[in-house]
Amino acid sequence: MTLVVIGPVTKDLIVIGSEKSHRVGGATYFQSFVFEKFYGDYLACVNCDDGHLIEEFPDSTKVKVIKKDNTHFFINEYPFDDNLDIRNQLSNFADIPILPSDLEEILPEKIDGFVINSLNRYDFPSETMEYLKSFNVPIFLSVQGFLRIPCKQVNENYAIGLDTFDDLDSILSGVCAIFMDEAEAKVIGFDYDVDEIIITNGSFGSRVLADREIKIDAFECEEVVDTTGCGDTYMAAYVSHRLKNCSIEESGNFASRIASEKLKRSGHY
Predict the structure, then answer these.
(1) Hey, which of 121, 132, 163, 237 would disulfide with 258, CB 3.0 to 4.6 Å?
(2) 155-164, pLDDT tens digit by residue?
(3) How many Å apart are CA 67 and CA 18, to the nearest integer?
């Protein structure tokens, strides 16, 4: 059986202090390196207009491209190189939705679960979420993209704001676990029909709301090199352990350790 990871691959510009670098990114990209090492049997489905981007994945044979007419672009600016918890983001807000018809021909016959990585509200329409729920397998979902709205325009891109919307309850209802950070939690709250709510808070650790609140300490990282993709790495590590029937505490601590390792290096885990 296969874990199916779905969401955009991106073209990113990373700005740390005065240093700039162009990279491949996106939650599905960062997570693929974690699943490659700790889960193995996975399939990444990415929406973009540039199929060459999958050459940067750990195993391009495990990636399916959903061909669209645009690609997500992000600028991640860290104005203080001694505090990479602070980030300013811009995005082109590409309108390239993943539809049920895009997935019907590429999904494997037997599926362990889905990992849903929306980078903006266009990526996963309600009909796509209903289609994925019809498989009756665990769904692990990152809330972040569903909340993003374009704000002030800066050249061809937009600053990113957060807001809830009417369909969010139905989108989240019935999924196994949702992942968010503390800023996103303040926007949407915690009253959803899900088994686990995982809330990350950078260097302050994370917590899981299930039948009780479980606090997960951050692993100490003496030198933080790059925080881009750290939350995505945490999510993949957590999912890889939960699907192996590890406890919430075990999965959270493992995810925290792997995320800390990601912090020490530029790019992916």
Answers:
(1) 237
(2) 899 999 999 9
(3) 35
> Domains in the chain and their CATH numbers?
2-263 (3.40.1190.20)
Q: Which residue has the tokens 């729920």?
A: 133
Per the model's pLDDT, the better-predicted residue between 40 and 84 turns out to be 40
Q: 24 - beta bridge partners?
A: 11
Distance CA 210, CA 53 (A): 37
Measured CA to CA, the distance from residue 16 to residue 20 in angstroms comes to 7
Cα–Cα distance for residue pair 43/227, rounded to 1 Å: 25
Beta-bridge partner residues of 45: 6, 64
* pLDDT 10s digits, 87-132: 788 999 999 999 999 999 999 999 999 999 999 999 999 999 999 9
CB 123 within 8 A of CB 26: no
Record the tokens describing residue 228, joined without a space. 């881009």
Question: How sure is the predictor about 269, in pLDDT bands with cuts at 50, 70 and 90?
Answer: confident
The predicted structure's pLDDT at residue 77: 86
pTM comes to 0.93
Residues contacting 238, CB < 8 A, separation 6+: 177, 179, 198, 251, 252, 254, 255
Q: Amino acid letter at 178?
A: I
Residue-by-residue DSSP string for 159-204: EEEE---TTHHHHHTT-SEEEEEHHHHHHH-S--S-SEEEEE-GGG
